[in-house]
Amino acid sequence: MTTVTFRRNEKAVSTAWQPSTAAREVREPLRYLAPNWFAVVMGTGIVGNAAATLPGRFPGLRGGATVVWGLASLLLIVLVGAWVLHWRRYPEEARGHGRNPVMMQFYGALPMALMTVGAGTLLLGKDVIGTPAALTVDWILWSAGTVIGLLTAASIPYRMITRHHFDPDSAFGGWLMPVVPPMVSAALGALLVPYTPAGQLRLTLFVACLAMFGLSLIAAFVTTTLIWSRLLHHGLPPVGMVATVWLVLGPLGQGVTAAGALANVSPSVLESNDANGFQMFSLLFGIPTWGFAMLWLALAVAVTWHARKSMPFNLTWWGFTFPVGCCVTGSTALFQHTGADLFAVTAVGLYALLVAAWAVVAVKTLRGVLRGELLGAAR
């Protein structure tokens, strides 16, 4: 059994993300490709997906969102292909990610990347490739993402329990990554419910989404409690991990989104009284959870501002994108169900923040790739 302290976690993060310019590393970038790279797809895809349902219609918004969906799709194809080559050429390095107590958390990025692009295909890509083709792509990516996500939600905590020992100051936002994919499955699976044949098949999909909603919700709340305790008792995480504080917004915003999405499709599955009850649940759960998300957003902003001068750029900065996008879609869902302008204004404001964060992080990532700094082994 391996003893892992938070200081060792810091070293592991450094090993995973810090730059190197050694000539051999530049020549062999695939050797150091890790699962956290799929966060790039997540953070890019959510920019398009959030725009597709944003309250109000702004000139050029849907066209721009469709372009972003295309970019996310291309990134997914490239990264999946590169990751397959990585496993074939460097199997020992690839298996090492699963043994690393920090990097193994980011296996959850792959299923969320798959489902994000799948949902974008149905929401935006249908304008390009047609609804039948978009629906087929979404079914394939959602199904693959759901299976992989359920595996990460069970296997990563199991490995943490049986193969490592974590000190009280070890918890960080990355611990949420393996358990959030089922929540994404619930939210994005709701989009497929109307396209599922009525009867038992549609009911089964709806119930499965609801079960995955609960699975991820409870696991995320437990993990968030550990992260909150770590921050209060041990202070800020190392500067290279500050951005992971934002990851807590992911399950919160995605939970509100999932509740609203399942409420939207409940009339096609449940009796009217039950569907009305589900509509009420989406508000009774969604509004308080949204309130806590806004509190955490304020804390995340304050913590980041406090550490801004010493934060080195690394791939954890993509934590500034997808979680914020989840809060955008959650706010949009509450606006749809309540008509309260508060949620519409918040959704638009957070979307502006999302686009700004994405632009900054995307430029820094591209620069790091071109310079060979992000595809080297870190020290």
UniProtKB/TrEMBL annotation:
<dbReference type="GO" id="GO:0005886">
    <property type="term" value="C:plasma membrane"/>
</dbReference>
<feature type="transmembrane region" description="Helical">
    <location>
        <begin position="205"/>
        <end position="228"/>
    </location>
</feature>
<keyword id="KW-1133">Transmembrane helix</keyword>
<dbReference type="Pfam" id="PF03595">
    <property type="entry name" value="SLAC1"/>
</dbReference>
<feature type="transmembrane region" description="Helical">
    <location>
        <begin position="240"/>
        <end position="263"/>
    </location>
</feature>
<dbReference type="InterPro" id="IPR004695">
    <property type="entry name" value="SLAC1/Mae1/Ssu1/TehA"/>
</dbReference>
<dbReference type="GO" id="GO:0055085">
    <property type="term" value="P:transmembrane transport"/>
</dbReference>
<feature type="transmembrane region" description="Helical">
    <location>
        <begin position="34"/>
        <end position="54"/>
    </location>
</feature>
<feature type="transmembrane region" description="Helical">
    <location>
        <begin position="172"/>
        <end position="193"/>
    </location>
</feature>
<dbReference type="InterPro" id="IPR051629">
    <property type="entry name" value="Sulfite_efflux_TDT"/>
</dbReference>
<keyword id="KW-0812">Transmembrane</keyword>
<dbReference type="InterPro" id="IPR038665">
    <property type="entry name" value="Voltage-dep_anion_channel_sf"/>
</dbReference>
<feature type="transmembrane region" description="Helical">
    <location>
        <begin position="66"/>
        <end position="85"/>
    </location>
</feature>
<feature type="transmembrane region" description="Helical">
    <location>
        <begin position="342"/>
        <end position="363"/>
    </location>
</feature>
<keyword id="KW-0472">Membrane</keyword>
<feature type="transmembrane region" description="Helical">
    <location>
        <begin position="315"/>
        <end position="336"/>
    </location>
</feature>
<feature type="transmembrane region" description="Helical">
    <location>
        <begin position="106"/>
        <end position="124"/>
    </location>
</feature>
<keyword id="KW-1003">Cell membrane</keyword>
<keyword id="KW-0813">Transport</keyword>
<comment type="similarity">
    <text>Belongs to the tellurite-resistance/dicarboxylate transporter (TDT) family.</text>
</comment>
<feature type="transmembrane region" description="Helical">
    <location>
        <begin position="139"/>
        <end position="160"/>
    </location>
</feature>
<protein>
    <submittedName>
        <fullName>C4-dicarboxylate ABC transporter</fullName>
    </submittedName>
</protein>
<feature type="transmembrane region" description="Helical">
    <location>
        <begin position="283"/>
        <end position="303"/>
    </location>
</feature>
